[in-house]
TrEMBL record:
SUPFAM superfamilies xrefs: 2Fe-2S ferredoxin-like, alpha-helical ferredoxin
Cross-referenced InterPro entries: 2Fe-2S_ferredoxin-like_sf (IPR036010), 4Fe4S_Fe-S-bd (IPR017896), Beta-grasp_dom_sf (IPR012675), Helical_ferredxn (IPR009051), SDH/FRD_Iron-Sulfur (IPR050573), Succ_DH/fum_Rdtase_Fe-S (IPR004489), Succ_DH/fum_Rdtase_N (IPR025192)
Sequence intervals crossing the membrane: none
Acidic residues: bias regions: 9-21
Sequence similarity: Belongs to the succinate dehydrogenase/fumarate reductase iron-sulfur protein family.
Biased composition (Basic and acidic residues): 22-49
Pfam families xrefs: Fer2_3, Fer4_8
Domain (4Fe-4S ferredoxin-type): residue spans on this chain: 201-275
GO molecular function: 2 iron, 2 sulfur cluster binding; 4 iron, 4 sulfur cluster binding; electron transfer activity; metal ion binding; oxidoreductase activity
Protein name: Succinate dehydrogenase/fumarate reductase iron-sulfur subunit
RNA-binding recorded as keyword: no
GO biological process, alphabetically ordered: respiratory electron transport chain; tricarboxylic acid cycle
Renumbered residue ranges of the record's region Disordered: 1-55
Length: 296
């Protein structure tokens, strides 16, 4: 039996790996991760909006007529299917149809803020401003036509010359002969009088009221609600001379003036600026009667 003692085997020390730095993982900084997450959100939102646009469209039927092009001289309606977006107006839909489907589609528009009055259409049987009318509030298909009772030039564009002639016939500008003595003195107006004529100043010359008036449709010489409202704005202004006011009333008392109004309220109903046109016409009738009263 050997008495030699065996030496214990030596074990190599285990090597421990250094802890991994979380900021170095994938060689991506926190700032880069935030940028990547933001980009992913933007892509998701864009994809979602595109999916919604692809899934929902608006059916519009637009009146077409072009007397200068053979084959388009017969009035018709063209159908367009426009991708719907929240807040879309009739004008937005027509502009999309022009820009994406048919560049020959013709209509007037300018400010897109219900101020210029150039985009008045006949939408689903009612005179309305295209830029103010929400597509979501209309029944489909949305039928878009030019203003009735006016000559159509092309597509949705009508001839406005007669309307402007009637507006200018009532002399729609301020007239005052007795100016203040001081060079810098103002022509003052009371708050009460300003409130009385305030609504009449909101007219944007869109022609919607004239188009809705059955009397104007049958009497081409009738001044119409827009022109009479413009005359009201100046006739009821206390700063004008009495002689000028009587002159205005004489213009309105003619055969085709205020007395032709049949108080149908159609002009008031379609006015995009909520002007009480019928009320103004009736007030001018009362003023005309009072001016003609004689007391002995």
């Amino acid at each position: 039996m050997s008495t030699q003692q065996q030496e214990p085997e030596t074990q190599e020390p285990e090597t421990q790996e250094a802890p991994e730095d979380p900021e170095m993982k994938g060689a991506e900084s926190p700032q880069q991760r935030r940028l990547d997450e933001k980009q992913e959100r933007m892509v998701d939102e864009r994809s979602e909006s595109e999916a919604e646009a692809e899934g929902e469209t608006v059916h519009i039927k637009v009146f077409r007529y072009d007397p200068e092009v053979e084959g388009k001289q017969e009035p018709r309606f063209d159908d367009f299917y426009v991708p719907f977006e929240k807040g879309m107006t009739v004008l937005d839909a027509v502009m999309y149809a022009r820009d994406e489907f048919d560049s020959s589609l013709t209509f007037r528009h300018s400010c897109r803020q219900a101020v210029c009055g150039s985009d008045a259409f006949f939408v689903n049987g009612r005179q309305q401003l295209g830029c103010k009318t929400q597509i979501s509030e209309l029944e489909q298909p949305v039928r878009i036509e030019p203003l009735p009772h006016q000559e159509v030039v092309k597509d949705l564009v009508v001839d406005m010359d007669h309307f402007y002639d009637q507006m200018h016939a009532v002399e729609p500008y301020f007239q005052q002969e007795d100016l203040p003595e001081g060079e810098l003195e103002e022509q003052r107006q009371s708050r009460e009088n300003r409130e009385n004529v305030k609504m009449s100043t909101r007219c944007i010359w869109c022609g919607a009221c004239m188009s809705s008036c059955n009397v104007a449709a049958g009497d081409n010489q009738y001044l119409g609600p827009a022109a009479i409202n413009k005359a009201y704005r100046f006739a009821m202004d206390e700063r004008e001379d009495e002689e000028i006011k009587e002159h205005r009333l004489r213009l309105l008392e003619q055969e085709h003036g205020v007395w032709r109004c049949q108080t149908q309220f159609s002009c008031t109903e379609v006015c995009p600026k909520d002007i009480p046109l019928t009320e103004h016409i009736q007030e001018l009738k009362r003023e005309a009667v009072k001016k003609n009263l004689k007391f002995w």
